Each structure stands twice: as structure tokens, then as C-alpha cells.
Amino acid sequence: MQTTVASKVRFDGVGLHSGAPVCMVVAPAPANTGITFVRSDIASDAADLRDAIIPARWDHVVPSQLCTLIRNEDGAEVSTIEHIMAALAGCGINNATVSIDGPEVPILDGSAAPFVDGLLAVGLVTQDGPTRALKILKPVEITNGSAKARLEPAETLEIDFHIDFADEAIGVQDKRLVMANGAFVRELSNCRTFCRKADVDHMQQNGLALGGTFDNAVVVDGQDVLSPGGLRRADEPVRHKMLDALGDLYLAGAPILGRYVGEKSGHAMTNALLRELFATRGAWAYVTVDAPTAARLPGAGVSRSDLAFCA
User: Fold this and answer.
1) pLDDT at 19
2) pLDDT beneath 50, residues of the chain
3) Please, are residues 103 and 18 in contact by the beta-carbon 8 Å criterion?
4) Any idea which residues carry the catalytic annotation?
5) How far is Cα 238 from Cα 52, in angstroms, rounded to an integer?
6) pLDDT score recorded for residue 311
7) How far is it, in rounded angstroms, from Cα 136 to Cα 110?
8) DSSP-derived secondary structure for the chain
9) CB 12 within 8 A of CB 106
10) Distance (Å, rounded) from C-alpha 255 to C-alpha 298?
11) Counting C-beta atoms within 10 Å of the first and last residue's C-beta, which end of the chain has fewer, N or C?
């Protein structure tokens, strides 16, 4: 059956790119609602509340630098949604209303772990109405130079990722995980966003990453990791790319039963892949989730204690 959060949970921080303070509240939502964002700062002045509502869906994603941004028909938008979307997907939350008083989700520590901790602390409730999943029936792939993103049939969600960076602190990394039985919470949720120091300098000169610090991102410079304490895991960068992919894939509007393969891909390519998927006849189908399938979904059996494995 579908789930939502048992009560409201609040997150306060700053936007990674704007540097502006932001308050975000995740609240329960009725069955069959899905995930929606509400710009509370717009809603307070809007004549029509719908002007402030933005569905967290692939067809509301618009091009943006270095993050995932959604926008409604009236121009209201929210950016950097990938980490909270990954947390909602990884905790198995089908319905939630995310109210936010600014245009960017708080970055917190640069990972999804604080979101997961807050969501699991208030708990989940079961709702009337079965969960449906998006089953991949045949492969769909897009490429951009040496980068590739692909979805292919599988019995549960699998993520297979490859990255290749010139900086020795990152280098070539590969990781493949089945996103079942709490794997996201244990294996990916605490892995932080990462960037090269040269890129940080360039972004800040161009008005981006104004909220970025060594405490909310892994910053590398050649063979050196500049962030205090170094990496949380030896392959933290590729794990974070998988975290991002899970969040971006949840914009399909349902948990996916299929295998995602990413090679040097990012937010834009994952969204382009979803657009290609939904445009390809016979490549997908919605299925009602039965008990055996539910046990293979990312949030099945997750508990707050799974975060201890991230330490």
C-alpha cells in the first residue's frame, strides 16, 4: 500500500547555489497525490494557491546548471531537489507535500542522510490505495559524446554507474547496487556532492555555489581532498552520483522496476532518458505492486537504525 510521512518534519539550512537561508517542511499528503512542492513564500501572496504548486515530475524539469530544477506553468520553481527526492524514494514515501519558503532546497551536509534521518524519525503511515510501479519493458538509451544513460528491464531497481575524472582523488570509479532492503539508506544516503576546487572558484565567480563550504561538499584538488575529514567512503563520488540518479529517477512519478546504467551521466541526461522512455511506445507499463514486489522496492523494511551503517 502507499505511504506518507506520519507528521510534519522541518529542515532549515541554506541553498547551495544561492547561499540564502531556507526553511523546508515535508508534510503528509493524501493517497495518489505523489510528491509535490509548494513555494510557501509565493502561496502567502497568491490569489490562487495553484500558482505556488509544482509537481515533482519529469515533465516539469527545466534546464539548469549543476542541479535538478522543476517549474510550473506560472513560473514558480524549486531547484536542487535531487537529494530530498532521493531520500523520499529511498524511504519508500509515495505521497508528500514539500513546502519551501524559497527557490532552492537546503543543502544541509551535501548528502541525503539528514533528510532520511528526519523522515524516518517521524515515521511513515500506510494509506488506502495500492502502490504502482513503473516497469521497464524494453531498453531505452541516450548518449552525449562519451556519456550514456540507459534503462533496461530488471525485477527491481538496480543502479550501475561509472565515472572518470582527471583528478587523482576521484579517478575512475564503478559501482552497482540493487536498491532493495534499505540499500540506499545504508550504502548511499550519506555520500556528499563533490566538485573540483577550480570549478568551485569558477562557479562562485559566476554567482553559483555561494552556499558551498567544505562542510557541505567534497572538494578535491588533484590528488588532495580539501574537505575536513576526507572522504566518508573511498568511492564516495560515484556513490553520490548514484544517489542523484535515484532522486532524478523518482521524478518518473513512481518507483521504477528496471536497471539504470549511467556512464559519466548527470541530472540533464537522466531527465532526457525519462523523456525518451515515456515517448517510446511499449518501453514501459504501470503495474500494481504485489507483496513480493513491494519487498524489493527501495524503502521496504527501512528503519532509522540503517543510518548507523553510514557512520
Assistant:
1) 86
2) none
3) yes
4) 267
5) 35
6) 57
7) 31
8) --EEESS-EEEEEEBTTT--EEEEEEE---TT--EEEEEHHHHTT-SSGGGGEEE-SGGGEE--SSS-EEE-TTS-EEE--HHHHHHHHHTT--BEEEEESSSB-B-TTSSSHHHHHHHHHH-EEE-SS--EEEEE-S-EEEEETTEEEEEE--SS-EEEEEEE-SSTTT-EEEEEEE--TTHIIIIITTPPPEEEHHHHHHHHHTT--TT--TTSSEEEETTEE-STT--SSTTHHHHHHHHHHHHHHGGGSS-EESEEEEES--HHHHHHHHHHHHHSTTSEEEEE--HHHHTTSTTTT--GGGGGGG-
9) yes
10) 8
11) C
What residue has cell string 547555489? Answer: 17
- The per-residue pLDDT for range 53-103, each reduced to its tens digit, is 999 999 999 988 789 999 999 999 999 999 999 999 999 999 999 999 999
Distance of CA 267 to the CA centre of its chain: 10
Spatial distance between the Cα atoms of 181 and 179, rounded to a whole number of angstroms: 7
Sheet (strand 61-62) strand order: 61-62, 69-71, 77-79
- Tell me the CA distances in angstroms from 190 to 64, 116, 123, 194, 306, one per residue in order: 24, 9, 19, 12, 11
Cell numbers found for residue 241: 552520483
